[in-house]
UniProtKB/TrEMBL annotation:
Name of a matching Pfam family: Acyltransferase
Membrane spanning stretches: 12-34
CDD domains: LPLAT_AGPAT-like (cd07989)
Domain of life: Bacteria
Organism of provenance: Sutterella wadsworthensis HGA0223
UniProt keywords, alphabetically: Acyltransferase, Membrane, Transferase, Transmembrane, Transmembrane helix
A GO MF term: 1-acylglycerol-3-phosphate O-acyltransferase activity
Full protein name: 1-acylglycerol-3-phosphate O-acyltransferase
Annotated coiled-coil segments of the chain: none
Chain ranges of the Phospholipid/glycerol acyltransferase domain: 76-191
Example of a GO biological process term: phosphatidic acid biosynthetic process
UniProt pathway: Lipid metabolism
Amino acid sequence: MTFANNLRGWIFYFFLAISIIVLTVLLLCSWPFMSYERRYEAVCRPWAKCVLKLLDVICGVRWRAKGMENMPDIPCVVLVKHQSAWDPFWLGAFLKHPPCFIYKKSLHWIPCLGWALASMNMMAIDRSKGRQAFEQFMRRGPEFEKRGWWVTLFPEGTRVPMGEHVRWKTGGARFACSAGLPILPIAHNAAICWPKNSVGKCPGVIDVEIGPLIETKGRDPHTVTAEVEAWIEGRVNAMPQHAGH
């Protein structure tokens, strides 16, 4: 990572921090007066798009998407490749329905960002509780789907650098199979521009591909997970592996 890339990264994080403070103030002030859905569309989605624009202007990181027409108008579960901290911004900005992320409850302790997350009443779980945390997810997930939110998960469970592989978790497929919901798979190569644990950002274009829905009714979650993993990993491997392509 060059000095220029690191410098641009620090400048980007400076403006990102300011934007998070503004986001938090807007969300907390509108909390008593607006529904979660209205606050998402009025505040969260525009903020996510603004962050992606900042990333383009400051760091030269752009994106292009294929398969946007595959996003349905019906409830579904979104399973996404997790290479970078970039993923939630894009999902928050461009998924057709608001994404309901499942995240660590400890994030609520982060000033501003944690408060903003808490105010949106998404699924914060205590991973230390193991089975209880999963049962909470299985119990609350259908509530969000009925409200029009899309339960959105990263089956790898952590950000995985380009070229590396970890065992995929079956929780997303188990929820989708239990609820009878199709899965919308999304692949991308964001790590070429925004690597894991890196301040610097490499100028370039991130490719995103949205796949066709994968049906789950009457199917085994392990089989479904294997199908989703094969599609996503296959598409990621076909994408450019370096920035500046």
